[in-house]
Amino acid sequence: MRAMAAAAATAAAWAQRLAGVRGLLLDVSGVLYDGGDGGGTAIPGSVEAVARIKQSGLKLRFCTNESQKSRDKFVGLLQRLGFDISVNEITSPAPAACQILKERGLRPYLLVHDDVLPEFNEMDTSNPNCVVIADSGDSFSYQNVNKAFRVLVSLENPVLISLGEGRYYKESDGLMLDVGPYVKALEYACDIRAEVVGKPAPEFFQAALREMGLEAHETIMIGDDIVSDVGGAQRCGIRALQVRTGKFRQNACCLKLSMPKSSGHGAFYTHEERCVGMDVSPRRTSGEPQSPQPFIVWTS
Amino acid sequence: MRAMAAAAATAAAWAQRLAGVRGLLLDVSGVLYDGGDGGGTAIPGSVEAVARIKQSGLKLRFCTNESQKSRDKFVGLLQRLGFDISVNEITSPAPAACQILKERGLRPYLLVHDDVLPEFNEMDTSNPNCVVIADSGDSFSYQNVNKAFRVLVSLENPVLISLGEGRYYKESDGLMLDVGPYVKALEYACDIRAEVVGKPAPEFFQAALREMGLEAHETIMIGDDIVSDVGGAQRCGIRALQVRTGKFRQNACCLKLSMPKSSGHGAFYTHEERCVGMDVSPRRTSGEPQSPQPFIVWTS
Could you tell me which residues belong to the region Disordered (chains A, B) (predicted)? Predict the structure, then answer.
């Protein structure tokens, strides 16, 4: 009976949190799938979750800082993994960066992955007067990063445009450095500040809201990054949920969670007393906090 | 006659600045030579300058953050360029780092250039519990930097030891990213602060003073880096001179110099009203401020 009462309390709490929600903003990497060799793998339950969200009548927008692939390639990969997704459902930073470059007459040196180059096909890259940096993986060679540095250091007013500022993300064989650390490297080398396009920039979330035709208070952002996803959304008045998949780490340097002794379905977790979380995955049976599973941490 | 009076005033000013000096701490890269293909080239006049200093009876210590080569290789290169220099005249960060590793029982993952590995021959690098980072040049591949990140992020108390924190240095074909930007990248990725061994750490300058048997007020540091050389020395009570060779840049992001109209021999330059400089190179005839030449900026 105590278990039933707890479940009822949990359901009531969720009903309150979800009140007035008409749309979801969904991060992709680490929430729906983990990248890796061969393209990556869907996180168990996520293909079905996307399908259920679409059936529910909630509006849905995929909000990703993915900048290693063009949107076409990215959607192709997700479709092969079983997701119901199309290019026009995605908000990503590359098109926003192109808009900025055009408006300001900027000619970028592109420190980006080859696979995302098609997004910049229309840009003039001759005699560069700015640098665009994105998650480049192996293309973050010393030579390439140094080329970007030399472009910046040669400019009177160096402009560095960054597609996101994530610290790291998860691939199937482990954590990988994201674009953020390389942005910090160039900022330090040149004593400048980058302009961030993509999460957590407010413009990114506002663009997603426009595309959905909803107000901030009518939506929830769901992501695995406490800064880019949760923090960015909250600064725009959007509620946010952090999943325990992807880069979520119990003892992450930047994310200290204190775990109460109770665990399992319905357990609540505290995050510096600002977060509580509960298991919403029917697949989750163990309360073991160390191994990421589809588990949601609520940040209010 | 006016020129003679100016020269006399200059000489008097220098006599005052150099009062009580019994030893010199001399940076190497950018001051004595510029690195590059084939090992690099001596900066004109510097071989003779070292010889003159040694003949003068002043004590001399070569204080370098060079961490791409072992001291043996470094000295061999400088000797081939014509310098009178030996290994035991050099203060460099690798031996200091080894001392720290031994004292604290640390087993490093070495994110360093292959050529500096011999300095760490005695270290246990199995199952690493810290990262040592040095100027690694092309070895700063994404894979290598990511390996260092994974070591740090797996540790409960991540320890990152950096051999210097320079922003960039100059090789014959242009500016090159130094270790500092990569330190900032790992600091951001893991939300930690590195421990800097080498300039500008006070311990580095204090070690050099011990090795010379002199007090801080009896010495002058000469370097091309306003932060690592000049700032570091000054924090230890050592006077400092900045040369206009090496990485010195008129419009450097981190070094704004306002140039008065007067120039040439005896001209004074201001640096945020805290620096004045004067030409002490007999080879310098042009007042052109844009192209680095052997020129000293005095920072009081």
Answer: 281-300
Domain that holds residue B184: 94-196
d(CA B175, CA B254): 14
Residues A171 and A186 in one domain: yes
Kindly state whether residue B277 falls inside one of the protein's structural domains: no
| Entry pTM | 0.77
Band of residue A242 on the pLDDT scale cut at 50, 70, 90: confident
Q: Above pLDDT 90, what percent of chain A?
A: 57
Confidence at residue B269, expressed as pLDDT on a 0 to 100 scale:
32
CA-based nearest distance A244→chain B, Å: 17
Closest-CA distance, B150 to chain A, in angstroms, reads: 7
| pLDDT for res B295 | 37
Q: What is the DSSP string of B90-143?
A: EE-HHHHHHHHHHHTT--EEEES-GGGGGGGTTS--SS-SEEEE---GGG--HH
Residue A66 and residue A106 in one domain: no
Q: B227 — contact with chain A (CB < 8 Å)?
A: no
Q: Check B153 against A136: CB less than 8 A apart.
A: no
pLDDT for A251 equals: 40
Q: Considering its fold, how many domains does chain B have in total?
A: 2
Helix, strand, coil shares, percent, chain A, to 5: 35, 20, 45
pLDDT, averaged across chain B = 81
Is B197 touching A (CB cutoff 8 A)? no
Mean pLDDT taken over chain A: 82
If asked whether residues B191 and B42 sit together in one domain, one would say: no
- The distance of A175 to chain B (nearest Cα, Å) reads 7
Cβ of residue B17 closer than 8 Å to a chain A Cβ: no
Pairing of strands B33-34, A59-63: unpaired
- Report the pLDDT averaged over residues A51-63: 92
Regarding whether B222 and B101 lie in a shared domain, the answer is no
